[in-house]
Design goal:
The longest helix has 22 residues. The protein has one domain: 3-Layer(aba) Sandwich (Rossmann fold), CATH 3.40.50. Strand 3, helix 3 and strand 4 form a beta-alpha-beta unit. It is of the alpha/beta class. It is globular. The protein has five helices and five strands; from the N terminus they run βαβαβαβαβα.
């Protein structure tokens, strides 16, 4: 009989906790300060760490630096639109494993998927749907990590 692997936990992880036992980091590209405050409140209440940038170029630089668990972006952001940002992240070996959630009022789910987005949500902001989708992405990243081992 083999002993259980101490690195693999069968105990459910609390929301917001990454595979290293730390709070998962979410990088959000959002121009609207009201939406920023709401997203920050909702995500932090759910146990996530959150950082914001207001344009695609800054998002790409911060993603390379921080390597967040998830990047949430609108499509219509200055300097580098959200779909181009997604393509850039997914084509860079340093950032390709960062999961991308596109959050937009545009009906562009197919275009977001073609750009490499892992999930898409329509605006307006829905707290329960945002938290549920983020947690599903965290769970997906943990599964992918396990598959890579």
């Amino acid at each position: 009989m083999s002993s259980p692997n101490p690195e693999v936990s069968t105990v459910p992880r609390p929301a917001g906790i990454s595979n290293q036992g730390q709070r998962a980091l979410i990088l959000v590209v959002e121009r609207n300060p009201v939406v920023q405050r709401l997203e920050k409140f909702f995500l932090e209440q759910a146990g996530y760490s959150v950082e914001f940038v207001s344009d695609g170029v800054s998002a790409l630089a911060r993603a390379r630096e921080l390597r967040p668990n998830i990047l949430v972006t609108e499509i219509l952001v200055p300097k580098l639109d959200g779909l181009s940002l997604c393509r850039a992240l997914k084509s860079d070996r340093i950032t390709r494993k960062i999961l991308v959630l596109v959050f937009s009022h545009l009906h562009a789910e197919d275009r977001a998927r073609e750009a490499g987005a892992d999930a898409f949500l329509f605006k307006p902001l829905n707290e329960q749907l945002l938290i549920k989708t983020v947690q599903e992405l965290i769970d997906l990243s943990l599964k992918q990590l396990g598959d890579d081992l």
